[in-house]
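User: Please write out a complete single-protein record containing the residue sequence and its fold in token form, without commentary.

AI:
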Amino acid sequence: MLSDLSICLVQTELFWEDMAANLKHFDGLLQSISKPVDLIVLPEMFTTGFSMKPFEFANEESNAACIQQMKIWAKRHKAVVCGSMMYASNNSFFNRFLWVSPDESFHFYDKAHLFRMGEENNHYQKGNQQLLVELKGWKLACFVCYDLRFPVWMRRTPNYDYDAIVLVANWPAVRNMQWQLLTRARAIENQSYVIAVNRLGMDANQINHIGNSAVIEPTGDCLLDAASAPGLFFGTLSVNALQQYRQRFPVALDADVFEWKIS
């Protein structure tokens, strides 16, 4: 049975291509959590920033170190911890979203839409499998940054039914208006919550990020907006609000049927 879901969004600057510094930084931030939460959401590529040098910074050792630290955080706070990192596997590299539970089990999603304007497609392999996870009865669909622009991939369907989207990003300030519009659009069209976490600060490529991490309600209204402030932001997803809205305004009953293929 569904029960309300307590979440923590972590909005912060990142240390460029420095996994040790980032893990230490997030460890300090998470130690300040003083109340129970169910889900802790970190930004995209939280160990390095949006780097195109996985051949230098991603390997089996970095994979293991990051996952181990996420397991420690999950056990410490008795909460799922999630975010994405550069990940090495079978002589390939992925922008991999990790979902780590307090029991040390984990799931992953490899970013399906690679940001070609930043040459991500030249350095990482695209994923072709969606990820649907459960937490306290909630079904959550997990995505990374540029995925936000592709509503067919993110569409809630009878075979891919979920209650909330979890989206992690390094979304530049220059396209902040689009970030805000698209997160709300995905919530409205899917009648689902959207939990969206973006980073802050300037990266080494002089690309600025101003956050606006948010929790969007199924109506498109903003439940939580972190604006451009650094820190931890807490919110609660309401079972009653979700179920009552879907019952009162059941647009999903008139949704189009379609099929899609991954190339």
